[in-house]
C-alpha cells in the first residue's frame, strides 16, 4: 500500500514529485471567488501572490473533486503543483469539513498515479483533519493490480502491466501534521491501520470468483487471524451438516465449492462489552435456479462485500487494540444452479429450528445471514450488526452511494446513522413496518424467504429480525448500493469494490469500547 509519512519539511523545501494544495469556492462576500486554503501560503508566495489568479485562468473553480495541475515556479523543490478542490469555503473562523478534506486528498492521490512521492499541504487545524487527509489520500491511491503485469509479448518492453496501467502513488508526505506530537502520530497510525484493512477488503471484493470462494476466503481469514492474534474457527460442510445450518447448506449445495461459516474473535482482557458483526459472504451469486437475467451476473463477485467489511472491521479493531470484544461471523457460500441446487418451493430447516419455504433462490443472502445471526445470538453479545449487499430494492430506494440502516432499536439505529455520517459514509435510517411481515406467511413452512415486492428491502430486514435472539440489540446495514462502484472513480472511491461500512463499523467498535453507546 502507499506509504504515509508526517513530514517535517515545509511546502517550499519538500523534495517530491508534486505538492498538493487546497482551493475552494468563496463564501459570503467572496462568493464566486477562488479561495486558497490554509497550507498553500508558501506556494502562493512562489507564484508572487498570484496562484489564485493563475488557477482561475486555467479554469479552476474550487469545486469538489476538481484537480488542476500546473508547473511549479522557482522557489519550490517540486516540479508540479496540484490544486485540489474543496468545494465551498467555510465561513470565517470555521474549519473545513473532514469529508471535504478526505475527498480532495483522494482526488489528488488518484491524479498522482505513477508518482513516487507527493506532499499534501491541505488545511490541518486538528488531528481529525490530519487523519481525514491521510485516509483520503491512502484510499484514493488504491489500485487493484493483482491480475495485471502478465507478460505480453506484443506489448512494448517498457510496459509493466498488460494494459499499461500506472502503479499507485508510492508515498504520501503529510505537511503541517506535527510529526513529533503523540496525538498526530496516533491519528496517522489509525488511518494506516483502517485504510490497510479497507484496501484488503477491496482486494477481496475485486478478486475473481474462480479464485475467491468460501474455502479460499476462509483461508485468508485464518491467515489474518494468526497475524493479528484473532481466534478463528471455520465450520466446513461436515460441521455445518452436524450443526444443522440449513440456510448456509441450502444456498451452497448447488456449487462444487462448499459453504463455510467463519468465526473471528478479537478479545481484550479489559473489555466490558461485546459487539458481534455478521457479514453476507456470497462469493458469487448466479441467482441459483432463479437465475439472474443477462446483464446482472457480471459484478456478482461483489456479493461477499458484507463479509469483507466485517472481516476488515474485526482485524482493524485488533490492530487498534480496542478495549471491546469484537466477533465477526462470515456466512460464506457460492450460489450456483445445478442438479443439486435448492429449488423454488423447497423448505429448509434453519439453524434456529425454524423452517423457511424458498420461493426465490436469488433471495439467498437472508438465508445464510439467518443462520449466522442465530449462531451469533447464542453468545449473547451486547449488540449485533449485520452487513450485506442484500436487496436491489435498497438501491432503488437510496441510490448507488447510500446504504440503508434498519434496527430493532430506534436509538441504536440513530447512533449508527450518526456515526456513519461522522466518518463520511452516506447512510439513511429505514423503518421495519410490521404490516409487511404478513407477506412472508407460508402455508407450508414457518416463514417464506419472500414477501411483498414493494418495500422489498424492508421485507428482507423483517426476515432477518426473525432470527435475532430475544432481547439483543440489532441493526442491519444494506450496502447493496455503495459496496461496488461501476462508474468512473471519484474522490477516494475507486471503480470496483469500495469497502463500504468498514469505517462505520470501526467507529462503532471504538464508541462501544468507550462506553458511549450505553
TrEMBL record:
One BP annotation, GO: proteolysis
Top-rank lineage group of the source organism? Bacteria
Q: Where in the cell is it found?
A: Cytoplasm
Q: What is its EC number?
A: 3.4.11.1, 3.4.11.10
An example of a GO molecular function for this protein is: metalloaminopeptidase activity
Q: Which residues bind Mn(2+) 2?
A: 280, 285, 303, 364
| KW Transcription (keyword) present | no
Query: Pfam families, per this entry?
Result: Peptidase_M17, Peptidase_M17_N
Q: Which UniProt key words apply to this protein?
A: Aminopeptidase, Cytoplasm, Hydrolase, Manganese, Metal-binding, Protease
Write the protein's name.
Answer: Probable cytosol aminopeptidase
